[in-house]
């Protein structure tokens, strides 16, 4: 078996084991991961099953990839209640990213020991391990970005249309995983155009404009198609092309309701730089060294990696500085593959690349004079301790707001009664209340369509129930009519959350603003359920009059 297969399956197994330990063993499930599971489950098991139930606020790849596993939740509901289907999705994707890092080293002709060292440093970085096993979209996004990076690096030498098309296809898939890929798609398109124009020298630039336009279209078209097709389908079905910005469930609304965006541009830029350094501690040294060596060697491959990965970091910085996103460490994950690739590229290029069909401007890469021992040793020395730096930073509430509760998993303490430790315990308990609420409602053996709720917070209830058709949810085509006249449609209960913060976007609250407090003259309070999770609402179950 080839080393890459061992590497892929070994990393997949590692991320699966770690992911199952965190989710099933410790109950540590991130809300975004569980919401994608809920979307996938509604495709199969809602009262109105259809593919569009997957939703259009977020890009679809993460949920689509889970559909086969979610289908099995009909027999094993624990697959969705603990986000196991998300783990089954993210583990092989992240393993794929690891394989691409290894192949970049192999394409470069790096010493075998350096390839394995850098690959291991990347694969075992705590952020990679955590996001390889938690069901979030970062795994699929990184896999596509690393694939695009490798293919664009190869194209710089081979001018092979197959490499160019593969890079474009990977970027298109990356957009279907995360919107951030749009920045990379634009940057790569401009880069490819400029490289093709200048390949044969400044004097011949005009003759190269048409080939450059063709290359730019080939690499940029998949991302453009992914953007326009996804927006068009969203508009045709929902009437909104960009729900991420215009929908009451979108990121813009979430920011407005939670106050998570930055209002200080200078602070935002400094914070983004700190996040990038936490994930890529060696970058301040690697970037100037790699740039100097690339200039000396006339090596365009180094710039290709920077264009793909640094464009995403730049977009994350810009988005946070403009108050368009949250201060989450995961948004800067591309610093990790950037650090790994630059470390590999300190070594001079080795033997010629194996190519399918060399383009008119391709060339057989000649081995650079001089032994690679010194740059290889330097590369290894710069990156070998970086996982420890990232791991320590992940325990900081300031730098790592979504991960710092891992301290109570990795370093549990039954005697620590500090406020921070209690907060961490509540984070680990997130969605435990929703699972209990789902069990309570399942035990009532209610008929189909008996419980009306929105999935703003209710997604965790929906993933945990063994009777999903009991619930009327927004993806059901008759949701609005049922919401307007619940009693006439046989609804017995309404699940309500406080009409504040994220609860303001809850459809039940928007239709009945006083329901949570008074019952809005349509229901009486049946049950109140305090929540054990951090920043999770106290639920109220109302019986419809």
UniProtKB/TrEMBL annotation:
Q: Which domain of life is it from?
A: Bacteria
One term of GO molecular function: pentosyltransferase activity
- How would you describe this protein's topology in the membrane? Multi-pass membrane protein
What is this protein identified as?
ABC transporter
User: Sorted alphabetically, which PANTHER family does this protein's record hold?
Assistant: MANNOSYLTRANSFERASE YKCB-RELATED, MEMBRANE PROTEIN
- Compartmental location: Cell membrane
What organism does the UniProt record list as the source?
A: Rhodococcus oxybenzonivorans
What are the alphabetically sorted keywords of the record?
Answer: Cell membrane, Glycosyltransferase, Membrane, Transferase, Transmembrane, Transmembrane helix
Keyword Transcription part of the UniProt annotation: no
Which GO CC terms are listed, alphabetically?
plasma membrane
Record has Transmembrane as a keyword: yes
A biological process (GO) of this protein is: lipopolysaccharide biosynthetic process
Q: Which InterPro entries match?
A: LipidA_mod_glycosyltrf_83 (IPR050297)
Which positions, given as ranges, span the membrane? 6-30, 51-76, 82-101, 113-132, 181-200, 212-237, 277-295, 302-321, 327-347, 368-389
